[in-house]
User: Fold NAD-dependent succinate-semialdehyde dehydrogenase from Pantoea trifolii.
Amino acid sequence: MSAYQSINPANNQLLKAWNEHDDAYAQQALKTADALYHSAWSKGDIQPRLQVLHRLADLIDQRVEELATIASKEMGKLIGQSRGEVKICSQIARYYAEHAATFLQPQPYASDVGDAWLEYHPIGVIVAVEPWNFPYYQLMRVLAPNLALGNPVLAKHANIVPHCADVFEKLVEEAGAPKGAWTNLFISTDQVADLIADPRVQGVALTGSERAGSAVAEQAGKHLKKSTLELGGNDVFVVLDDADIDEAVRQGAQARLSNCGQVCTAAKRFILHEKIADTFMAKFSAALQSATPGDPLDGKTTLGPLSSKDARDRLVKQVDEAVKNGARVEFGGRAIDGVGCYYQPTVLTGLTPDNPAYYQEFFGPVAQVYVVADDRAAVALANDSNYGLGGSVWTKDIARGRKMASQIETGMVFINSQSDTSAELPFGGVKRSGYGRELSDLGIKEFANQKLVVVAG
Assistant:
């Protein structure tokens, strides 16, 4: 039985299975990608590469409904959210098509040594290991900057979204990219490790779990390969006493339910100022409990399934363990009976640092709620985390919000908005949330040879 199966989590029906690729296929893919790196495609004029990105953006715009439906059926995302994901993929492709040439312009350095500048060049084949929760967006974050720069990519996608992986590869090919520019591989973790070890591979990008990130970083480090990691998060959503409560509730509930809570940067720890805690909790609880589970393809559904039976079962076990160690379930706390991988919107309180759940990421519609007396306590609690991906602060006093944002130890903080993403904004974290940045001008330089050239005298 293939490890790459498309199973609809709304009804647990097998849609299709894909054959895995053997070592010979993976090696041929690497050979093709490496040959492309050594060709004029990668090392010559950037414009042909940018034209591929322009065409790819246009193709995606023409197929929003088709692509969105595939994702919703395969991993359970609500159809409206899938459409949004597809549209941001075209935005990212178009962004790099329009801006990559500027980002890669030589950068002069003032120096007494001589006329000095920095050039940006591709480094070689990159291996990408990507997750299922945003099955197109995660791929586009790696493809667009590396295609513009000239790095060929070998991509191993999550084994529960093979249809998304397959259709993405075909889109890149249809857009005019040569063979080897982006290759989808249905391979095992051992085969990924073999690719990373190969001297023709020069970098590895991973988005996924801490465990997967650690394994990939270890292999990359062992073979002296550059790596970027975007791992988990237990992002804070800090609501201060002068916040717009109704808007904070609206976006907080949205953040916790979006993609059924399966978002690395979604609000997971709600830190409430004691003066507004009761008011926020009453409205927040009502908003979560009003969620309507159902078919992700039905526009009236507001709570889709978790991505798989395994994902639901992990969440069940995690919440049960949290309660066993002293957490209180304010409401929810159980899988939803019936067909499909659904879980009740849930609020946990009473979490203390001696409860393992206090430091864990809940990848599902589960919110942790804490109450604090002041801004200092909010920052201390926010930073008492092994993760450091994103977060948001809610206050009408922007100076107060900016001060708190500067003190929170994460890669991203949004003031008066839930965490968001856009092609022009850097994305990444610190601590166990990983290292490196994707998107923006920073993303295209992660796997670039930033070469200094000096004319002496």
Summary: The chain has a mean pLDDT of 98. The longest strand covers residues 114-122. The chain is about 40% helix and 20% strand. Residues 79 and 297 are 5 Å apart (CA to CA).
